[in-house]
Amino acid sequence: MNLFDIRINNKKQLFNPFALHTYYKGGSVPPPPDPMKEAEARMMEERERARLAAEAEARAAEKAKIERGERISNNRARLNTARQNADAYGLQRLQSRGLNADSYGLNAAYRSALDRAANNFQEDAQSFSDPFSQSLFDDVFNTAQSQERRKLRNQFSEFAGDGFENSMFADTSDDRFIDAILNDQFAEAQDTVNRAAARGTLNPGSLSYAQQELNRARTSGRARAEDMGLGVLQGYRNQLTNEAKRGNARIDQYELGDQFNIDNLKGNITGLQSRLNNRLEGDIYNAISGTSFFDTDKIIGKSANRGGISNGTNAPLGGSSFSSPTQTNDDLTRRQNTGTF
User: Is the CB of residue 186 less than 8 Å from the CB of residue 266?
Assistant: First the structure.
């Protein structure tokens, strides 16, 4: 038998583990625990723990519900106050510009913007945030202002849209002045050639060639004169487009409530057009008349070389005659072929 040395009540005794019953009151070993009862006890303990947790959760939920209701009520009250302030702010902004609530539909548009902001408001937010920022009115105002500017710009562009300057001063606007200048120079050149023929410098053949040269010079002169005239016209057009740009810039600066008349912008352009029309003839003459389109010395010299020199008199162009009444065509032919010195 194995014996263990243990101390009980500060006394040293011998202890036999195989004879425990000798040391317990009653003289027997307690029965082992009942597994069924232990399981039942654990289940009861779990149920109690769950019941307590459920009660705590219910109390927390009830508390959260109450707090949420109070928060929503408080946020709604503050939202109503903020809405009233926003309405007053919108009216104050309108009045500061001399506008009433119905001007340009601003008040209705502003209230719609406020309604949208209110619909997006989170009522149960932990902290209140005013959804009605002042930028809402600015957005509505700027949108309406842009729409009005667009209307004005469309009205103005119907009068002074792309290419309007070309219709006011077409390429043919200076034709009558160019024609007058060319006709004067042509008549003077024709007279010079006729006088050369009358002096005998040109015979009938060279006179005919000189006439062709005059006509060619007139055609090329017309093209040159038109180019020069277009320079004047393009300058006018540039002035008109610049005036239109100033008109559009004025529209871009327009603000709701401004006194604005689109006819004033149109009047600026028509007034400029009238002033330019009044000086068109003078500007064309200044640009063109100083240019000689008929080099008669060159024409006469070139024609004389091609047709030979005649010392007799020829019938000038235009049907008049500077020859002697007794001169015959045979004489003219002889002079053309032989020359007389």
Answer: no
